[in-house]
Specification:
The complex is a heterodimer of chains A (286) and B (402).
Chain A lengths: L2 H30 L6 H19 L7 H20 L7 H23 L13 E3 L2 E3 L1 H23 L1 H11 L1 H6 L4 H26 L7 H15 L4 H18 L8 H15 L11
Helix pairs in contact in A: 1-5, 1-8, 1-9, 1-10, 2-3, 2-8, 2-9, 3-8, 5-6, 5-8, 6-8, 9-10, 9-11
Chain B lengths: L1 H14 L8 E8 L6 H20 L3 E3 L2 E11 L4 H13 L5 E3 L4 H13 L4 E3 L15 E3 L9 H10 L4 E7 L2 H17 L2 E8 L7 H10 L3 E5 L2 H13 L6 E4 L19 E4 L15 H12 L5 H20 L4 H10 L1 E4 L2 E4 L16 E8 L2 E8 L16
Helix pairs in contact in B: 2-10, 3-4, 5-6, 10-11
Classes of the chains: A mainly alpha (286), B alpha/beta (402).
């Protein structure tokens, strides 16, 4: 196997987790037009959730997933009522500033408690070796779990009553209220769901790489690129966008210095915003 | 009139900086309480704090029959150069710091040096190894640690002793310190007869090294040197292990010098690093504590093991104190002259500063050792493996399972 193929496969595996991280961000934007800048903090919360559950309670790493999902949901609910609810319907800049401030508070509190020390969660999953190249088992498991979660999210949004209510509120909040949908409850649920997806993506990332309290910023930035690629407000597109970003990173690295990857990613971000503002994989928002 | 006098007195008391109190020596510095440099910066600061507390507990620095209490003025630079610029100006102009300690990391030191030189303030550096800062004609800057070109010299020599024809891949952070280290190490590797099969930098915020490690594998490298600061070096170690990069040798910057590196488990085994100080290397100090005394006092105070960053932080204070005592004055010019003449051995090693205008303040006597993570009684421990004269264990080569 050539290094290029190995890089592409690895890029796709990691890209799927980028997609999961972006799903939460795009869901929140799609439903309530809120740019959630606590997204990075939620990703980090998932990382620390995994660390505390495995190191503190000796839970197997993947058994932490439902707990992180539930914890993220509750944290998301709290964030919604503290920082977002009063900003709904106001200019997006208001919620952006509100969540930006909360993010600073969360990172500041976290730094006071943990510092920016690196944490590592040892996860032992056998990988696959082809020739000289090895694909770590953790990357494969993370990609499989991401696909499963994306399917569940799709099923929830398109096949359940609550999911349909979320899509209705996203489409036209006023009309949704007229037909009796409790929109405030739906909005808080959607925000909490987005936050819990961010937490779970953080948890999965923590099985792949060591992390610090500041790791969330990088994944938040990647999430913005992913949702622009996949279409703002489109959770399914986010997964495709994540895979595209991973593929791009895998394809570029063999041919140019790795320090150029971020430059090209953000150049692409600007190009897509200008040329194709609904995303290159945009599906019509329901 | 009385009221006016009281108000004037109050105003003087309010604005009078601590420096005006005759029995104080005010030392200013920034530390990275927040941001990416937090871990190493705080370790350095703990060392400096311990020096201050010990000096003050012993009655202060004694000069000409008078004792001076050491007072620190510190600010959080948030690991950002722009903050360093503002805060060092504030330390000098508002807080009237008489002496300065440098911030942590070469980039921040370069920024702070512009300010300290502009105001002619003496600054002792123990967290900036890049040598370029000392080639700018600075007069009041003194580097107490080995410069960047010494960081991987031990690794190159040790590797050469085992494999004179190694194929080396250099992958490193795109920051001033790491670039300076690798530039020197690449030259040293070529002199040693190694084949350099890859030389590539990455952005300091890189979190996934998977694609670049595949590139290392494709290059046919059997030795790896690089990294940068704590998070990226540790992530590289973990991913090199996860992706079984088939390496016989792995030397990384900074992170393996921290005891938390052992949390990487098997990924840490065999990884080596250039270290400014290790407890097992014994020097006979001309003044100050022995290495064992320093390590014990540090453990007693903070309940964590001392590393080279904390030892270097303590050394900054020790060097300044010795210079003040030798100068028998707190006059900055006299203390600067004493530092220019300094040629001493402390528990941290031999310290002497270049005095020629082209390299003034550059450290010319201190040597680093090479430390490697090895197994002992089922636990990961950091042993000094190079130079042989200072080694506490044999070199582990080839390293297992990488």
């Amino acid at each position: 196997m050539s290094g290029i193929v190995a890089s592409i496969i690895d890029g796709l595996l990691v890209g799927s987790v980028y997609g999961l991280a972006a799903m939460g961000l795009t869901l929140i934007w799609g439903v309530m037009d809120v740019v959630n800048l606590t997204h990075g903090s939620m990703i980090v919360a998932g990382m620390f959730g995994l660390f505390l559950l495995t190191a503190g309670l000796n839970l197997p790493p993947y058994a932490a997933l439902p707990i992180v999902l539930a914890g993220g949901f509750l944290a998301g609910l709290a964030l919604y009522w503290i920082a977002v609810h009063r900003m709904i319907g106001r200019p997006p800049l208001m919620s952006l500033l509100s969540t930006f401030s909360i993010n600073f508070v969360l990172i500041g509190l976290g730094t006071a408690v943990w510092g920016t020390v690196l944490f590592n969660v040892p996860v032992s999953v056998p990988g696959f070796t082809f020739g000289r190249y090895t694909f770590p088992g953790t990357h494969i498991v993370a990609a499989v779990l991401t696909a499963l979660l994306a399917l569940l999210l799709y099923f929830f949004l398109y096949r359940t009553r609550l999911g349909k209510a979320i899509r209705a509120v996203a489409g036209n909040r006023g009309a949704a209220e007229l037909v009796g949908i409790p929109t405030t409850r739906v909005l808080s649920f959607a925000f909490a769901l987005g936050a819990s997806l961010a937490c779970v993506s953080g948890m999965l990332i923590a099985t792949l790489f060591p992390f610090t309290l500041l790791s969330g910023d990088v994944y938040q930035l990647k999430s913005f690129i992913v949702i622009v690629l996949g279409g703002l407000g489109n959770p399914t597109g986010a997964l495709v966008g994540g895979l595209a970003l991973g593929l791009l990173e895998g394809l570029l690295t063999p041919f140019m210095p790795v320090s150029w990857t971020a430059v090209i990613e953000f150049a692409l971000f600007v190009v897509v915003l200008i040329a194709c503002p609904t995303g290159i994989f945009a599906l019509r928002r329901s | 009139m009385k009221r006016l006098g009281l108000a004037a007195t109050a105003a003087v008391l309010l604005v009078a900086p601590a420096a005006f109190a005759e029995d104080n020596i005010v030392v200013g510095m920034t530390l990275s309480q927040t941001g990416s440099l937090n871990v190493d910066s705080l370790a350095q600061q703990r060392g400096a704090d311990m020096w201050r507390d010990q000096v003050n507990a012993a009655g202060g620095i004694k000069v000409g029959g008078k004792s001076y209490t050491v007072k620190f003025v510190t600010y959080d630079d948030q690991s950002q150069g722009s903050r360093v610029q503002q805060l060092y100006t504030r330390l000098i102009v508002q807080d009237h710091a008489q002496f300065l300690f440098g911030p942590y990391s070469s980039g921040l030191v370069a920024t702070a040096a512009v300010i300290s030189e502009q105001y002619g303030k003496l600054m002792v550096i123990t967290g900036g190894a890049e040598p370029k800062t000392y080639e700018l004609g600075n007069k009041y800057l003194f580097q107490a640690i080995t410069p960047a070109d010494g960081y991987l010299k031990g690794a190159v020599d040790a590797l050469h002793s085992k494999d004179p024809h190694a194929k080396v891949a250099f992958v490193y952070s795109d920051d001033p310190f790491s670039k300076a280290v690798i530039e020197a190490a690449e030259g040293q590797s070529k002199e040693a007869g190694f084949e350099v099969v890859m030389n590539e930098s990455y952005g300091p915020s890189t979190t996934d090294f998977g694609p670049v490690i595949n590139k290392v594998i494709s290059s046919g490298a059997d030795a790896f040197m690089g990294g940068g600061h704590y998070p990226d070096s540790a992530t590289l170690a973990r991913q090199l292990y996860d992706q079984k990069a088939n390496l016989k040798w792995e030397s990384l910057l900074v992170a393996p010098g921290d005891s938390k590196f052992a949390t990487l488990g098997p990924a840490a085994l065999g990884v080596s690093t250039g270290s400014q100080w290790e407890l097992s290397v014994k020097f006979t100090p001309q003044f100050g504590p022995s290495g064992a005394e320093f390590a014990k006092a540090f453990k007693d105070k903070y309940n964590i093991d001392a590393d080279y960053h904390s030892a270097s932080g303590y050394t900054a204070g020790m060097v300044l104190q010795h210079a003040i005592e030798q100068a028998a004055s707190v006059d900055p010019e006299k203390v600067t002259a004493a530092l220019n003449k300094m040629d001493v051995t402390t528990f941290f090693g031999h310290i002497k500063f270049a005095t020629d205008p082209g390299h003034h303040g550059l450290q010319v006597a201190h040597d680093m050792v090479l430390a490697q993570w090895q197994m002992k009684d089922g636990n990961l421990v950091r042993n000094v493996v190079w130079p042989k004269a200072a080694a506490s264990a044999d070199l582990l080569f080839p390293i297992p399972s990488h």
